[in-house]
UniProtKB/TrEMBL annotation, chain A:
It holds the Pfam family MadL. This is Malonate transporter, MadL subunit. It comes from Haliscomenobacter hydrossis (strain ATCC 27775 / DSM 1100 / LMG 10767 / O). Keywords: Membrane, Transmembrane, Transmembrane helix. GO terms for cellular component: membrane. The chain crosses the membrane at residues 30-50, 70-88, 94-112. InterPro entries: Maln_transptMadL.
TrEMBL record, chain B:
GO terms for molecular function: sodium:malonate symporter activity. Keywords: Membrane, Transmembrane, Transmembrane helix. Signal peptide: none annotated. The keyword Membrane applies. The keyword Nucleotide-binding does not apply. Residues 4-251 form the Malonate/sodium symporter MadM subunit N-terminal domain. This is Malonate transporter, MadM subunit. The chain crosses the membrane at residues 12-30, 42-61, 82-100, 106-128, 163-185, 197-217, 229-248.
Amino acid sequence: MLIRGVALLAACFIIGQLSGETLGRILHIDANVGGVGFAMLLLILAQNWLEQRGRFHQEMEEGVMFWSKMYIPVIVAMSAIQNVRVALSSGLVALLAGIIPVLVCLAVMPLLSKLSPKAA
Amino acid sequence: MDYITTVLVKNGLVVAFLVTGVVTYCSEYLSRVLTNKKIPGSAIAIFTGLVLAYIGGMVTGGTKGIADIQQLSGFELMGGAMFRDFAIVSTAMGASFGIIKKTGLAGIVSLFVGVILSFTVGAIIAVAMGYQDAASITTIGAGACTFVVGPVTGTAVGASSEVVAISIAAGVVKSILVTIGTPFVARFIGLNNPQAAMIYGGLMGTTSGVAAGLAATDPKLVPYGAMTATFYTGLGCLLCPSILYILVKLCFNS
């Protein structure tokens, strides 16, 4: 059933968000700490768990894959609601502080890549 | 004619689906015809989104891009945090846990390097541009991390609203730059495997920028980059108003 896949995704999403909010409260930060990350880990674990028990159906996967494919359109919509006008006009500090750190991090990227084992 | 507007507003989300679909279709066409698929259609579509946001801001003077135009207000829901996060989580389906475990250490190191490096460079720029109080320097440095870390930090350390606005703007500039730039730099920094994507996400943070940039580069890399990037915001919100603020305060006793 398609809806089972969507429900599985929704369950992981809600549990992840709640974990992120709870962690934020514990740490006294008014923010969601890694909620999306937790939800993604949960989904991967849930998928593995169901597959091992042979209870993961093709249609369930399709329910999740639909949203996965809607991802780019959602991102297009997201970029369409950013405050681009202010970002472009609120001065040199914002521009510099937005651009230079990215360039510096890019320069460090090859160094960090050496830390990780090569892709098989 | 008013009833047309009413219908569009009432069905806002569906209108947003339609407009996004048209934008995506046109972008695919342009990618094929003008650039021979060298620039991915999704990159053109995302860039078009930013242009639309700019137009929306210019026309209405509002802060929500195209969603400030009444007939297109549905974009606020479709492009909002709920749908975005839901769709990001779904991309984890099929991601390999083995690869994530293998990259673990490099991913964590890249998170710390990313937050501290961005903060430091941002803070140096703030000082160079004449800011001298610890709260402002810290907030602008945090804005160089992401547009969430900036205001969270600014509120925590008591920065002025003008400085908070600058920190948000810096974060938005970063997000836009990463969105547009990722497909172009991918070849030069070896961004073609899950490990590299995880390190990239940890280094850059800005979930929306990394996810959009990777989507335009290779959709298979999105879950890996997006996962580390979501932890970046958490780490930034943790480090900036605490340890990093104290360090800045030691340097600029105000």
